[in-house]
Amino acid sequence: AIGYNYEKYNNWDMIAAWTASIAAENPELVSRSQIGTSYEGRPMYLLKVGKSGSNKNAIFMDCGFHAREWISPAFCQWFVKEAVNNYGIDSEITNLLNNLDFYILPVLNIDGYVYTWTNNRMWRKTRSKNANSSCIGTDPNRNFNAGWCTVGASNRPCDDTYCGPAPESEKETKALADFIRSKHSVIKAYLTIHSYSQMLLFPYSYKNSVTKDHTELNSLAKAAVSQLNSLYNTRYTYGSGAATIYLAAGGSDDWAYDLGIKYSFTFELRDTGRYGFVLPESQIQPTCQETFLAVKYISNYVLNNP
Amino acid sequence: VQPHTFHGEKVFRVIPQNEEEVEFIKSLATNIQVDFWFPDSVTQIRPALQVDFRVEFHQALDVQSLLAQKGMKYEVLIDNLEVALEREFDNNAR
Lengths: 306, 94
Description:
The structure holds two protein chains of two kinds. Chain A has nine helices and eight strands. In chain A, strand 1 and strand 2 (about 45-50) form a beta hairpin. Chain A has helices at about 10-25, 70-85, 90-100, 110-120, 170-180, 215-230, 240-245, 250-260, 285-305; strands at about 30-35, 45-50, 55-65, 100-105, 185-195, 200, 235-240, 265-270. The two termini of chain B are about 25 Å apart. Classes of the chains: A alpha/beta, B alpha+beta.
């Protein structure tokens, strides 16, 4: 990973090779596993970041749900790099990695991400074939069993927010859900990284009612956003998905929360539309630096409030 | 399959002020190939929520004149998407 450029967008081959090298170069802190394969057969690599130890709680963070949101995978790569490089140097990071494990899924929708590099930069969904339709793909963030396909999603395969033929119909979403289910006694927080619009959202999105933990999640989001804002004065809004933007069923954050993972958040990274999905590489560093502060804050809170 | 290029494609922003303007955007989306950037889909549009959407080159002028006829204020966020995509890779370390 030495020489790997975290301040540019990397294609899937680069990211896949990076997962191997970052693990090989940091055996004390990073291990790589595979939680499944994508529809087109690509390996879904997962990195476990943390000092080996028993009975540790964990935080799960995924990137790359929507293929065109390139800043999202860039953040997951940045996060691993920062964590590894600051272990033993920054006391906060060292304490976090000694006491928590971070499961990092650099790209969930690998086939879609590859497609944005090779065919259509504006592609969003997975690349699975739909029965009885020539239209391709399902929206992975409408495919979870959380109010599935009831609101803010479409049951038409040609639509960008197609919820799929069934919950977890996609190999990618089922692999993620299976892994989290298998570890859900230790996973205390779920973070999913998207773009754009500069928001920090928490459940629910599939209904207007608030969760039983709304007050706590709202104050945690407020504090995390304040941390993020402190670096470059980037303004984020925060709140429950339904109230902050719109109703949208089948999201992974709602599903994780209903599974029992209380600290469940969706980050919508930079920007607010000036570039949208075409965020220049020159903004990767500031975006990742500020987001890292927010994730670090949430992680500390989770560590102290399991 | 040839990679899709985005020459002359534009990204617009409108903020519908009322249900009538929401319906206008929805009807636009039924007649023109619209790629919604925000919100994710036409069903989530509501008054006062910004709507960002991409249209292809051959329909961009139609969209602008339809919005003007409707008297809806709009902003062109990205005037030529292909140019923006080329500028995306601005980290000279490449």
